[in-house]
Design brief:
The protein has about 70 residues and is mainly α. Helices cover about 50% and strands about 0% of the residues. It has a domain of about 45 residues. It starts with a helix and ends in a 27-residue tail after the last helix.
């Protein structure tokens, strides 16, 4: 696929490399602006599986020294 893109870009190697950088920057921009915000609610990263309240202030962890 990348070879096909490279062969179809106009210009010499330097121009092709610059066009590739612009294309990559465009894809990254589209991902961060549209795809990732759309997909974020569908991903389970905010699902918390820890139950119980946080320890009170001054309490030590189980097995920890005072």
């Amino acid at each position: 696929m990348y070879g096909w893109i490279w062969r179809h870009l106009p210009g010499n190697a330097l121009v092709r490399a610059l066009i590739c950088l612009v294309l990559v920057a465009g894809v990254v921009f589209l991902l961060f602006q549209y795809v990732f915000p759309w997909a974020e609610p569908l991903l389970p990263f905010n699902d918390v599986t820890v139950d119980g309240a946080a320890p009170a202030a001054g309490a030590t962890a189980v097995g920890g020294a005072a």
